[in-house]
Amino acid sequence: MSETGQIGSANPETICAGAGVAADKAHASVAPPLHLSANYAFADPTEKPPFDYSRSGNPTRAQLERALADLEGAASGVITASGMAALDLVLCLAKPGELVLAPHDCYGGTHRLLNARANRGHFELAFVDQTDPIALKAAFESKPKLVLIETPSNPLLRITDISACVALAKACGAITVADNTFLSPALQRPLDLGVDVVVHSTTKFINGHSDVVGGAVLARDAELGEELAWWANCTGVTGAPFDSFLTLRGLRTLFPRIERQQATAGRVVEALAADARVAKVFYPGLTSHPGHNIARTQQKGFGSMFSVEFVEGVDAVELLRRLSIFTIAESLGGFESLVCVPATMTHAAMTPEARAEAGISDRLVRFSIGLEHEEDLVRDIFAALDFAGDGVNDGQVFETKPLGSKAVKQCA
């Protein structure tokens, strides 16, 4: 076992469970200690110790960085104060005049950050539908410096062919960055497909308990990892020790949480996909999803996030008001089931025109499935839908469709 408590080339489930365990050399504690010190003593003024100042490096944060790097197959990692800080850190790799290529349907906060930085002249910016091979190939003719990939996308769960995107990027020397927040390394490892950098909002599935905000940047190449670490220290975006401690604790249950959440999500999707008041369900596990086959090849599972666009006559706002188990809130990936209307919540920073271009309508509702029982979640949604969809088909009350259809496939 290493100094950070990692177990060499073990299976990912073992890496998660053993992160930081029995790594304390001072007192042999099984659970890793929390190092809150802001600074560290020098044995000699001419010899720099492994840690000197917590903005630059901290033992607790280092344990989390190593654990996530091992899970993603990265050379190194940087833990940041938030997911947006992680994205902003990778933008330090682009210089004024260089092009950043981003998905047109990315998370609203990402869209806002990219536009704000581009408007200040930090780099040039272009949005493209990365699921359109022709549009994507044309976009690469401008020779971008940095390519952001978000797959599955937020909130429409579109699937980008990572390998195809990487091939185009390598041909022009671009750096590829994949936001892996929606799946986590438990279900997808973009670095294995040639991506250079992976970013996470660790607030979501990695921590899984909705009680700490954080982010991570993980680099496949050691030299690129050093550059990112330099910028992190320079700008001070690194995460706090206590936040790292909590996130490391949450990480240990990543696999069983995701396995349960994903299974429940599939069953809820089955029920919704069969209902006449649902216009469309956005979930890669459905065989009707345009990215289903690509997702099967590059993901280990379809995750526990999905979005639903309801037919006209269903009041999406009233639907949320009538839910009793789901909590109306932003964020995702925690133990509790959450629901939101992206147009007015997570993607409100986008202009109406940008949302329309991305396909985000006012009737779109995004669901994050937690650890509650699947039957209770289905019952909660359909009870709310009976009120919110009263304007559909002369107020007919629909019965909940039975669970157990074969519409949702599992990854190979």
List the helices and strands and how they pair.
Blueprint: H1 12-18, H2 59-72, E1 76-80, H3 83-90, E2 99-103, H4 108-119, E3 124-128, H5 133-139, E4 146-150, H6 162-171, E5 175-179, E6 197-201, E7 215-219, H7 222-235, H8 241-251, H9 254-273, E8 278-282, H10 292-298, E9 305-310, H11 316-322, E10 327-328, E11 338-340, H12 352-358, E12 364-368, H13 374-388
Parallel strand pairs: 2-3, 2-4, 4-5, 5-6, 10-11
Antiparallel strand pairs: 1-7, 6-7, 8-9, 9-12, 11-12
Task: Name the features.
412 residues; alpha/beta; 13 helices; Aspartate Aminotransferase, domain 2; seven-stranded mixed beta sheet; 14% strand; single chain; Aspartate Aminotransferase, domain 1; five-stranded mixed beta sheet; 12 strands
Could you characterize what this model shows?
With 412 residues, this protein is α/β, with parallel strands linked by helices. The protein has two domains: 12-251, Aspartate Aminotransferase, domain 2 (3-Layer(aba) Sandwich); 255-395, Aspartate Aminotransferase, domain 1 (Alpha-Beta Complex). It is built from 13 helices and twelve strands. The protein has helices at residues 12-18, 59-72, 83-90, 108-119, 133-139, 162-171, 222-235, 241-251, 254-273, 292-298, 316-322, 352-358, 374-388; strands at residues 76-80, 99-103, 124-128, 146-150, 175-179, 197-201, 215-219, 278-282, 305-310, 327-328, 338-340, 364-368. The longest helix is centred in the middle third of the chain and has 20 residues, at 254-273. The protein is globular. Residues 394-406 have low confidence and may be disordered.
